[in-house]
Amino acid sequence: GNFKLEKAVIVRKVTRYEYEKYILKPDLTEDQLKIYINKKGSNYDFLYLRHQEYIKSLLDLENAFEKRGIKYRLVQRYNFRPQLIDWADAIFTCGGDGTFLLAASKIQVPNKPVIGINSDPIRSEGFLCLPRKYSSNIMLTLDKIFKGEFR
Predict the structure, then answer these.
(1) Is 18 inside any structural domain?
(2) CA atoms in the 13 A half-sphere facing the CB of 20
(3) How many domains does the structure of the chain reveal?
(4) CB-CB contact of 65 with 7 (8 Å)
(5) Angle at CA 70, nearest 5°, toward 11 and 86?
(6) What CATH number is associated with residue 128?
(7) Which family does it belong to (predicted)?
(8) Residues 30-55: tens digit of each pLDDT
(9) Which residues contact 93 (CB under 8 A, 6 or more apart)?
């Protein structure tokens, strides 16, 4: 059709590492945080690695938008506001099904696409997000959108 993608909002999730560090325990040093997380029975190194992988997937998405000349605004899921929805041609979520559902639930108009990028397509297969092939290759997704082959 005649869909134009010039402006997009990226709704990002909060990683478990970020949640622990900035929300639960903002006063701890990194070493204290590591001890705290490991004592709780979680694995700090694993959470930190997953966080780094998530940040990389976010940067991949931003870089793809920049290469395509798409203006974008990156917001944390808690800061996703109606003004941003009005501003954007499309909403992209970077996370999983939870991030997708949160974003989609705030959209009140039928003609505003919500496109879910699974930020961890190797470990998880979301039902609402794009399949692995498209989540792990954003340029392929954008090519399809720009050719009008994306539904």
Answers:
(1) yes
(2) 20
(3) 1
(4) no
(5) 55
(6) 3.40.50
(7) Belongs to the NAD kinase family.
(8) 999 999 999 999 999 999 999 999 99
(9) 10, 11, 12, 13, 99, 100, 102, 103, 114, 115, 116, 117, 129
